[in-house]
Design a protein that fits this description.
The protein is mostly helical. The protein contains seven helices and two strands. The protein is globular and about 50 Å long.
Length: 214
Protein backbone atom coordinates (compact mmCIF):
# COMPACT_ATOMS: atom_id res chain seq x y z
CA UNK A 1 0.00 0.00 0.00
CA UNK A 2 1.38 3.37 -1.00
CA UNK A 3 1.07 6.41 1.23
CA UNK A 4 0.92 10.10 0.45
CA UNK A 5 1.89 12.90 2.83
CA UNK A 6 -0.27 16.01 3.30
CA UNK A 7 0.87 19.22 5.01
CA UNK A 8 -1.51 20.21 7.82
CA UNK A 9 -1.44 23.38 9.90
CA UNK A 10 -0.41 22.91 13.50
CA UNK A 11 -3.23 24.06 15.77
CA UNK A 12 -2.13 26.14 18.74
CA UNK A 13 -5.05 26.98 21.07
CA UNK A 14 -5.22 30.45 22.56
CA UNK A 15 -4.34 30.51 26.27
CA UNK A 16 -7.27 30.62 28.68
CA UNK A 17 -10.96 30.11 28.12
CA UNK A 18 -13.15 33.03 27.12
CA UNK A 19 -16.34 33.39 29.16
CA UNK A 20 -19.52 32.74 27.20
CA UNK A 21 -22.16 34.07 29.57
CA UNK A 22 -20.90 37.57 30.16
CA UNK A 23 -23.24 40.56 30.02
CA UNK A 24 -22.72 41.52 26.33
CA UNK A 25 -23.33 37.95 25.17
CA UNK A 26 -26.51 37.70 27.22
CA UNK A 27 -27.71 40.93 25.60
CA UNK A 28 -26.83 39.55 22.14
CA UNK A 29 -28.87 36.41 22.73
CA UNK A 30 -31.77 38.33 24.30
CA UNK A 31 -32.05 40.90 21.51
CA UNK A 32 -31.88 38.15 18.89
CA UNK A 33 -34.62 36.10 20.54
CA UNK A 34 -36.73 39.25 20.91
CA UNK A 35 -36.17 40.52 17.37
CA UNK A 36 -36.74 37.15 15.70
CA UNK A 37 -39.87 36.47 17.82
CA UNK A 38 -41.40 39.86 17.01
CA UNK A 39 -40.33 39.44 13.37
CA UNK A 40 -42.17 36.13 13.11
CA UNK A 41 -45.16 37.76 14.78
CA UNK A 42 -44.98 40.56 12.19
CA UNK A 43 -45.02 37.97 9.40
CA UNK A 44 -48.05 36.13 10.77
CA UNK A 45 -49.90 39.37 11.57
CA UNK A 46 -48.71 41.17 8.41
CA UNK A 47 -47.94 44.17 10.59
CA UNK A 48 -45.61 47.01 9.58
CA UNK A 49 -45.65 48.30 13.17
CA UNK A 50 -44.36 44.97 14.49
CA UNK A 51 -41.67 44.96 11.79
CA UNK A 52 -40.48 48.37 12.96
CA UNK A 53 -40.41 47.05 16.54
CA UNK A 54 -38.39 44.00 15.42
CA UNK A 55 -35.88 46.24 13.64
CA UNK A 56 -35.75 48.50 16.69
CA UNK A 57 -34.92 45.60 19.02
CA UNK A 58 -32.25 44.45 16.57
CA UNK A 59 -30.56 47.84 16.12
CA UNK A 60 -30.77 49.05 19.74
CA UNK A 61 -29.63 45.65 21.04
CA UNK A 62 -26.76 45.58 18.56
CA UNK A 63 -25.51 48.95 19.76
CA UNK A 64 -26.05 48.03 23.42
CA UNK A 65 -24.11 44.75 23.43
CA UNK A 66 -21.14 46.41 21.74
CA UNK A 67 -21.24 49.35 24.15
CA UNK A 68 -21.41 47.06 27.17
CA UNK A 69 -18.55 44.89 25.88
CA UNK A 70 -16.29 47.93 25.62
CA UNK A 71 -17.54 49.66 28.79
CA UNK A 72 -17.23 46.54 30.97
CA UNK A 73 -13.98 45.35 29.39
CA UNK A 74 -15.69 42.12 28.27
CA UNK A 75 -14.79 42.06 24.57
CA UNK A 76 -14.02 38.51 23.44
CA UNK A 77 -13.48 36.83 20.10
CA UNK A 78 -16.26 34.35 20.81
CA UNK A 79 -18.56 37.26 21.64
CA UNK A 80 -17.67 38.92 18.34
CA UNK A 81 -18.57 35.75 16.44
CA UNK A 82 -21.83 35.47 18.40
CA UNK A 83 -22.64 39.08 17.50
CA UNK A 84 -22.02 38.37 13.81
CA UNK A 85 -24.32 35.33 13.89
CA UNK A 86 -27.04 37.19 15.81
CA UNK A 87 -26.98 40.09 13.36
CA UNK A 88 -27.66 37.69 10.47
CA UNK A 89 -30.52 35.96 12.29
CA UNK A 90 -32.23 39.28 13.08
CA UNK A 91 -31.60 40.79 9.68
CA UNK A 92 -32.81 37.74 7.74
CA UNK A 93 -36.21 37.52 9.45
CA UNK A 94 -36.74 41.29 9.26
CA UNK A 95 -35.83 41.43 5.56
CA UNK A 96 -38.14 38.52 4.76
CA UNK A 97 -40.96 40.23 6.65
CA UNK A 98 -40.30 43.43 4.70
CA UNK A 99 -40.45 41.44 1.47
CA UNK A 100 -43.82 40.01 2.44
CA UNK A 101 -45.26 43.41 3.37
CA UNK A 102 -43.77 45.23 0.38
CA UNK A 103 -43.03 42.74 -2.43
CA UNK A 104 -41.95 45.59 -4.71
CA UNK A 105 -38.78 45.98 -2.59
CA UNK A 106 -37.36 42.68 -3.85
CA UNK A 107 -34.75 44.37 -6.11
CA UNK A 108 -33.11 45.74 -2.95
CA UNK A 109 -33.77 42.77 -0.65
CA UNK A 110 -32.36 40.05 -2.92
CA UNK A 111 -28.84 41.52 -3.31
CA UNK A 112 -28.93 42.59 0.36
CA UNK A 113 -29.50 39.02 1.55
CA UNK A 114 -26.74 37.71 -0.72
CA UNK A 115 -24.39 40.47 0.43
CA UNK A 116 -25.05 40.49 4.17
CA UNK A 117 -25.73 36.79 4.80
CA UNK A 118 -22.95 35.42 2.59
CA UNK A 119 -20.21 37.85 1.54
CA UNK A 120 -20.27 40.06 4.64
CA UNK A 121 -20.39 37.02 6.95
CA UNK A 122 -17.21 35.56 5.49
CA UNK A 123 -15.62 39.02 5.38
CA UNK A 124 -16.45 39.70 9.04
CA UNK A 125 -15.02 36.36 10.18
CA UNK A 126 -11.62 37.03 8.60
CA UNK A 127 -10.61 38.92 11.76
CA UNK A 128 -10.08 35.48 13.36
CA UNK A 129 -6.92 35.05 11.28
CA UNK A 130 -5.28 37.85 13.25
CA UNK A 131 -4.98 38.41 16.99
CA UNK A 132 -7.94 40.83 17.09
CA UNK A 133 -10.87 40.91 19.47
CA UNK A 134 -13.37 41.74 16.73
CA UNK A 135 -13.66 43.28 13.23
CA UNK A 136 -13.91 46.67 14.95
CA UNK A 137 -10.12 46.55 15.34
CA UNK A 138 -9.36 45.59 11.75
CA UNK A 139 -7.88 49.04 11.26
CA UNK A 140 -4.73 47.63 12.90
CA UNK A 141 -4.42 45.32 9.89
CA UNK A 142 -5.78 47.43 7.03
CA UNK A 143 -7.36 50.81 7.70
CA UNK A 144 -8.93 51.13 4.26
CA UNK A 145 -10.84 47.85 4.63
CA UNK A 146 -11.92 48.89 8.13
CA UNK A 147 -13.21 52.25 6.91
CA UNK A 148 -15.25 50.61 4.15
CA UNK A 149 -16.74 47.86 6.31
CA UNK A 150 -16.64 48.38 10.08
CA UNK A 151 -16.46 52.11 10.72
CA UNK A 152 -19.80 53.55 12.02
CA UNK A 153 -20.80 55.04 8.61
CA UNK A 154 -19.96 51.77 6.85
CA UNK A 155 -22.11 49.78 9.28
CA UNK A 156 -25.02 52.14 8.65
CA UNK A 157 -24.70 51.51 4.91
CA UNK A 158 -25.42 47.80 5.43
CA UNK A 159 -29.13 48.52 5.83
CA UNK A 160 -29.39 51.96 4.22
CA UNK A 161 -30.55 50.47 0.93
CA UNK A 162 -33.49 48.70 2.55
CA UNK A 163 -34.47 51.81 4.49
CA UNK A 164 -34.47 53.90 1.31
CA UNK A 165 -36.47 51.28 -0.54
CA UNK A 166 -39.14 51.29 2.18
CA UNK A 167 -39.27 54.93 3.26
CA UNK A 168 -38.84 56.55 -0.17
CA UNK A 169 -40.76 53.83 -2.04
CA UNK A 170 -37.84 53.67 -4.45
CA UNK A 171 -36.73 50.02 -4.64
CA UNK A 172 -34.53 50.81 -7.64
CA UNK A 173 -32.53 53.41 -5.70
CA UNK A 174 -32.23 51.00 -2.77
CA UNK A 175 -31.08 48.21 -5.09
CA UNK A 176 -28.35 50.40 -6.58
CA UNK A 177 -27.03 51.28 -3.12
CA UNK A 178 -27.13 47.64 -1.96
CA UNK A 179 -25.29 46.48 -5.08
CA UNK A 180 -22.63 49.17 -4.61
CA UNK A 181 -22.13 47.93 -1.03
CA UNK A 182 -21.87 44.36 -2.34
CA UNK A 183 -19.21 45.36 -4.87
CA UNK A 184 -17.28 47.17 -2.14
CA UNK A 185 -17.39 44.08 0.07
CA UNK A 186 -16.20 41.84 -2.75
CA UNK A 187 -13.30 44.23 -3.35
CA UNK A 188 -12.51 44.19 0.39
CA UNK A 189 -12.59 40.40 0.42
CA UNK A 190 -10.10 40.33 -2.46
CA UNK A 191 -7.83 42.78 -0.65
CA UNK A 192 -7.88 40.65 2.52
CA UNK A 193 -7.15 37.55 0.44
CA UNK A 194 -4.06 39.28 -0.95
CA UNK A 195 -2.97 40.14 2.60
CA UNK A 196 -3.32 36.49 3.61
CA UNK A 197 -1.40 35.24 0.59
CA UNK A 198 1.41 37.68 1.35
CA UNK A 199 1.88 36.22 4.83
CA UNK A 200 4.33 33.34 5.44
CA UNK A 201 2.86 29.87 5.74
CA UNK A 202 2.30 28.64 9.33
CA UNK A 203 4.28 25.80 10.77
CA UNK A 204 3.10 22.46 9.37
CA UNK A 205 3.23 18.83 10.25
CA UNK A 206 2.93 15.89 7.89
CA UNK A 207 -0.10 13.62 8.01
CA UNK A 208 0.26 10.32 6.20
CA UNK A 209 -2.75 8.80 4.44
CA UNK A 210 -3.08 5.97 1.92
CA UNK A 211 -3.43 6.95 -1.71
CA UNK A 212 -6.86 6.34 -3.29
CA UNK A 213 -7.13 2.87 -4.72
CA UNK A 214 -3.95 1.69 -3.01
Amino acid sequence: MRFRTYPTSVVRPRPGIEPWWNTPNVVSVARTVGSVAVGVWAVTARSLVLLVVAYGIYWVGDMLDGHLARRLGQETRSGAVLDIVCDRACSAICACCLLMLAPETWPAILPFLLSFLMVDTMLSLTFLHWDLESPNYFGNVDRRVWLLNWSPPAKALNTAGLVLALVLHEPGVGAVLVILVLVMKLWSFGRIRRLLLAEPWPATCLVTAPEPGA
